[in-house]
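Mods, move this if it's the wrong board.
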Amino acid sequence: MQDNKRFNDVLYAVSDSCRQVLGLLSPTVKQNANEIRMRLGLPLALTVGTETVFVRDNGQTQFFLSNDLYKITPDDLEQSFKRLCNNSVFAHENELKNGYIVMKNGSRAGVCGNLTASGALKDISSINLRIAREVFGCANEIVRDYKNGGLLIAGPPGSGKTTVLRDLIRQLSGGINGRLTRIAVVDSRQEISGSSNGKAANDLGPNTDILITENKANGIEIALRTMFPDIIAFDEISTLSELKSVSESFCAGVKIITTAHIGSIEELQTRAVTRKLLSSGAISQVALLPRLHGDKIKVINAKERLSSVAV
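Not the wrong board. Structure tokens:
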């Protein structure tokens, strides 16, 4: 199955011993696992939905600690880190300064250890493999209420913002709203497209251009000047320079679709960047994801008093 393939595709980056154990997992667990977590001296763990499950030596999973769980060794972490870096830590130096490595299929590995003053990461203590998945139709509730303006997809970490963004891009690019929409994706971490050597691993629709760049603000400006998109889509705004680029896109008549990491609806107003983004006029609707609001996606007008939305 395709979902099993996504899981199996990240196993190139784990040690031989871990791969052997993870290969014994049931198809159901593989299909639903979002993360593989390796922590030095601690049990091998998976994130399935919002739950943590531990992996036994025989590939069985459980929610509680016991003596027969597979424990991560120094050799496991050393092998895994070398494979993630393709045996060249230097080639991934800039990524590692930000605590992650982009994997071959668009998945992402978070890496923890000793971050030195120079930005070098050594003495690796844990690795978290986040499995990028395509969930066709997960943005249907947004598509239904989307008014063809600027949109902010909001939710806490791990709530599926990038997955929803990916599906929304695919549907809008494919003409779900009655006309083909030109979309420029500025993919600063290659998570949206899963691009490798110019080819996207994820389906972003037939009318989408992808720009891979670490400088998101510059990427937005380039997309605006050169691709003439109807929409520019990208993951979370984190700096004022990125916000400035968004404002320029808005003034040029290009719509913005982006995401925001927030733990509560109130944070949309209390966090400086999201507050300024909402007040800029570039965002006309906000999509609140289920972990933030009830059991389904809720799309609201950005001018609504957000604190009045029931959680």
